[in-house]
Amino acid sequence: MMGTVAALIAPKVRDPLFPFLGLTVATVLLALLLVAALFGALAFIAGATDGVSWLGGNVRAGVLWMIVVGVAGLAGWGYAATVTFGAEFSTSAQITLGYLGGGLPFALVACVLLRPVALNVAAIVMSVVLLGIGFALVDSSGEQQFNALQLYAWYLLSLLGGPNTAVPM
Predict the structure, then answer these.
(1) N or C end of the chain: which has fewer CB within 10 A?
(2) In a domain, 165, yes or no
(3) Is Transmembrane helix among the key words of this record (predicted)?
């Protein structure tokens, strides 16, 4: 699903520093529809895997699991997208990575919520390593004057319609 979101967004990018300015209303609506479908799939998974997480095994726990995995997974996916924009990956590379690895942030968050502590630790370590690799990729891209976290904040503000001048320095 997130690969399709990448396929919708990546080709519309006009400027690496303002990736969301080139999106049409139809593109935004399709992306939102895919994200809604993602939360529907997460709700199904939460119901089918009742009781395997630290959150418990009732309906409220399943809803909480869906929200945590969905929101934190989208945040992780957004960071990965920021890295591909900031490191100036080609459109085809962004789409390929979206299809091949778009579910990874969601899987890592889900693993943090599963009961075996060893799995929690492994998912957290992998997340930290991936965050560091993304930070290094953006930092080493040459002409970029912002690090990955600053760019991520800027992209979030841009996506939410905030001022593009509010880049944290």
Answers:
(1) C
(2) no
(3) yes
**Do the domain assignments include residue 7?**
yes
**Within a domain: 79:** yes
Please state the φ and ψ torsions of residue 167, each to the nearest 5 degrees: -75, 125
- Tokens 């690799």: give the residue: 133
Find where tokens 């998974």 sit.
45
If one counts the domains in the chain, the total is: 1
- The number of residues in the chain equals 169
pLDDT in tens, 80-103: 998 998 888 998 999 999 899 999
Q: Tell me the CB-side half-sphere exposure of residue 78, using CA atoms within 13 A.
A: 21
φ, ψ (nearest 5 deg) of residue 54:
-70, -15
Q: Is residue 57, in this structure, part of any structural domain at all? A: yes
| pTM of this structure | 0.84
